[in-house]
């Protein structure tokens, strides 16, 4: 069945990573685990800490938000206990210690400096109010809250253990052993974290994720989705990667239609195969031309940072922060560190950049794998980037 131009447009929109569906296929087990721990802690008004790990693109944050929405709806309908909820995202903080000020302001409505807020929170959890509702804190991008003394991570993991603290911390990171690496095995084991690890998606799960966004649109041949799912699962299991491939495949179909080519008005296996090769071939300039805005911007940020430090490589962390500065400057939506790691991974798979193979975290070293002239040539046709690389 051929898809209409409108159906293709809708499919492209539905496949965008920001278009979060009502429920996440393939994460039912993790949903139940998180829900069970949170329901019990909120009902019994006890503090606890849940540590969730998994590589980028595995649905960690989206699953937690789905659980929170479920609990909030139950509370509104008088079928569940009341609770307060706040998100603290490491990528959105000017410095890690700002997390103290944000939590203190959320709990009291009062402002305080980061250091003073830390002292006030310490007193608050030593002598909590018996009538207060449980407070659920989602600490996302925990990797970015690592400090030299590690007091921030320690405090947020330790406060829930205080008697009657009613503080429930959900910490999300890309690295499974982050608590051990930064707090030592002895300290992390004493904190008694509940651990949930999100495995990379299987090809069956990736198939369901893509298929669930395309119901009734006729934009994809079923075998094309299957091929995409198998290709991605064999490399990374990253759902964002599968969605990117499918969005690019729709653009190919739309381009063919615009040129009045005799081609199927539907994504086929051949188109998926072509797109995957395009996105992983040595012709990385072609990949850059068809890359997303944030993929292009990440390369610009990397180029700028390398020129600034005068070295052949730099850290992902410094590029990510420059990327965010560029987003603010040009009024673009600011991506999370997980999204930026996924972008870095995709650019690495396309051989546009080289990253440390031994690690996938914010401290990895990265370098360009495309000549400056080729990068400029690939970006110049895009009016948005022309001035940035002039």
UniProtKB/TrEMBL annotation:
<dbReference type="GO" id="GO:0033314">
    <property type="term" value="P:mitotic DNA replication checkpoint signaling"/>
</dbReference>
<keyword id="KW-0378">Hydrolase</keyword>
<feature type="domain" description="AAA+ ATPase">
    <location>
        <begin position="46"/>
        <end position="197"/>
    </location>
</feature>
<dbReference type="InterPro" id="IPR027417">
    <property type="entry name" value="P-loop_NTPase"/>
</dbReference>
<dbReference type="GO" id="GO:0005664">
    <property type="term" value="C:nuclear origin of replication recognition complex"/>
</dbReference>
<dbReference type="GO" id="GO:0046872">
    <property type="term" value="F:metal ion binding"/>
</dbReference>
<comment type="function">
    <text>Component of the origin recognition complex (ORC) that binds origins of replication. DNA-binding is ATP-dependent, however specific DNA sequences that define origins of replication have not been identified so far. ORC is required to assemble the pre-replication complex necessary to initiate DNA replication.</text>
</comment>
<keyword id="KW-0539">Nucleus</keyword>
<dbReference type="Pfam" id="PF09079">
    <property type="entry name" value="WHD_Cdc6"/>
</dbReference>
<keyword id="KW-0479">Metal-binding</keyword>
<keyword id="KW-0235">DNA replication</keyword>
<dbReference type="InterPro" id="IPR003959">
    <property type="entry name" value="ATPase_AAA_core"/>
</dbReference>
<keyword id="KW-0067">ATP-binding</keyword>
<dbReference type="InterPro" id="IPR015163">
    <property type="entry name" value="Cdc6_C"/>
</dbReference>
<dbReference type="InterPro" id="IPR050311">
    <property type="entry name" value="ORC1/CDC6"/>
</dbReference>
<protein>
    <recommendedName>
        <fullName>Origin recognition complex subunit 1</fullName>
    </recommendedName>
</protein>
<dbReference type="Pfam" id="PF22606">
    <property type="entry name" value="Cdc6-ORC-like_ATPase_lid"/>
</dbReference>
<dbReference type="Pfam" id="PF00004">
    <property type="entry name" value="AAA"/>
</dbReference>
<keyword id="KW-0238">DNA-binding</keyword>
<comment type="similarity">
    <text>Belongs to the ORC1 family.</text>
</comment>
<keyword id="KW-0547">Nucleotide-binding</keyword>
<dbReference type="InterPro" id="IPR054425">
    <property type="entry name" value="Cdc6_ORC1-like_ATPase_lid"/>
</dbReference>
<keyword id="KW-0460">Magnesium</keyword>
<dbReference type="GO" id="GO:0003688">
    <property type="term" value="F:DNA replication origin binding"/>
</dbReference>
<dbReference type="InterPro" id="IPR003593">
    <property type="entry name" value="AAA+_ATPase"/>
</dbReference>
<dbReference type="GO" id="GO:0006270">
    <property type="term" value="P:DNA replication initiation"/>
</dbReference>
<dbReference type="GO" id="GO:0016887">
    <property type="term" value="F:ATP hydrolysis activity"/>
</dbReference>
<dbReference type="GO" id="GO:0005524">
    <property type="term" value="F:ATP binding"/>
</dbReference>
<comment type="subunit">
    <text>ORC is composed of six subunits.</text>
</comment>
